[in-house]
Amino acid sequence: MTTGEKIRYFRTSHELTQEQLASQSGLSISALQKYESDERKPKPEQLLKISDALGISINIFMDFDIRTISDLFSLLFRMEEQANLRFYKDTTTDTIGIYFANEYITEKISSYAEMLREIDSMNPSHQELMHTKIQNELLNDNTSIQEVSVITSSSHKDAVSSLAVEEKLLDIISDCTPAEREQILDALTFLKNWMRTAKEK
Predict the structure, then answer these.
(1) Rounded distance between C-alpha atoms, residue 198 and residue 82, angstroms
(2) pTM for the whole structure
(3) Are 61 and 9 in contact (CB under 8 A)?
């Protein structure tokens, strides 16, 4: 995803309009529109304002161009220091392994691996879209890894089951015109709001 696509994705996932995000980040609406359309590339200070307004890490917008051993180890050493990354050598199979000595990180990576297996069984035309969606949802998790050790084991099961629902929705709208898709989304939004209102009564 481009920087503009990422800004748009996280803005819409936080249910913000361009006007709201521009106001909360202190940017002009025209600048934000140009960033989202990739007409202009935001400077780091603008990205910081956007990420702060969205409550996400600025790292989401950074390109980690790993080309050298130094590039790779600079990231590994950072994770070793800050995220309890550990290395080991299995002498029986002569392989090197890495793991995180943090239950929450381990649970999140396990969930990701399980969801990737689910994606492999999907329609190939949906795989890339779902892969990007899963990655973005994980990037949207601002849980502090220094503070969390309690695992909610049901969370990844919920995520996996939601993938099946989303694939069905993709199948339904895959041959629709843009106008039909808009109508389907409007109908689903109405139905969701109606169900939530009914539940509150």
Answers:
(1) 46
(2) 0.58
(3) no
